[in-house]
Design goal:
The protein has 279 residues and is of the alpha/beta class. The protein is built from eleven helices and eight strands.
Length: 279
């Protein structure tokens, strides 16, 4: 990873949460390449400000001072690496990062970390509160001219509902990495008492009666990603696109988390992360 952890440190730091290491590797590989691509094209695109937004920052399950196994530290390293590389290429790009966290204890650690560990040349800010309540404030922080990348990794699934994300998805010049807890949702998608919540999550009520497990998975992911794209305003030049990576639980040998990425940048993910599966 960018923060130069040894294999032994990685294994220790991600003990009992190996899936987080895969999510963070996806974040690292994708975000770095994406920001370099956008930054290198800044002269002709007019985008001279790159914003990173972690909507559920934590930190969680990392007691170290440097928070090496958190998306906070990893994203900071990526932004600094991109800034250095773009400066070498003569590109003047401003880097900003926003970290949102609701839990007071975690937020205090987040603030302390940003004060002492934000690299020179990177601007960072923390917001305390619920992501849903702060959506408009987050969008105001991003402004209208910057390119923004949203890392959306909540503990639950209400926060990634189509109706909740719609206001964020409508923002131009944006990409999104959304962690979608398929294994959990798969158990509840047909419960009658949850039909209203499931409809809000998927943007419609998925039809999965009689499907095999593989077909059911395909249908649920297709429905969710289809309605993510529909929430993005039409753009003939850069149509909305989506891809995903499935992360398996090594003990259950089944899907634990599906990571969905929605973008409207003419398919850059094909160039930067070959294992993404396009719709």
């Amino acid at each position: 990873m960018t923060n130069d952890m040894s294999p032994e440190e990685i294994a220790k730091g991600y003990s009992n949460r190996e899936h987080a290491s895969i999510k963070h590797r996806l974040l690292e590989e994708y975000l770095k390449a994406l920001f370099l691509i956008i930054g290198m094209a800044s002269d002709r695109s007019g985008v001279t400000e790159l914003c990173y937004v972690d909507c559920f920052a934590g930190p969680w399950l990392d007691d170290s001072e440097d928070l090496k196994t958190t998306s906070i530290a990893i994203s900071m390293d990526i932004l600094k690496c991109c800034e250095i590389e773009l400066q070498k290429q003569g590109k003047r790009v401003r880097f900003r990062a926003l970290y949102v966290e609701k839990n007071r204890t975690a937020f205090k650690r987040l603030q302390q970390y940003l004060i002492s560990h934000t690299p020179e040349g990177i601007e960072s800010e923390a917001l305390q509160g619920d992501f849903i309540d702060l959506r408009n404030k987050i969008l105001n922080w991003c402004g209208t001219k910057s390119f923004a990348f949203f890392f959306i990794d909540p503990k639950g699934w209400t926060e990634v509902s189509i109706n909740v994300l719609k206001i964020i998805l409508e923002r131009p010049r944006s990409e999104f990495l959304i962690n979608f807890m398929y294994d959990f949702l798969n158990r509840f998608v047909e419960k009658q008492t949850l039909q209203s919540q499931i409809t809000k999550l998927f943007g419609e009520l998925p039809m999965v009666d009689g499907l095999t497990p593989a077909a059911r998975e395909k249908q649920l992911l297709f429905t969710y990603r289809k309605n993510l794209k529909r929430s993005i305003p039409p753009n003939k030049r850069y149509p909305a696109r989506s891809a995903y990576v499935c992360i398996r639980d090594p003990e259950k040998k089944s899907y634990q988390i599906s990571s969905c990425l929605s973008d409207k940048s003419s398919g850059w993910y094909h160039k930067v992360y070959g294992n993404l599966r396009e719709s």
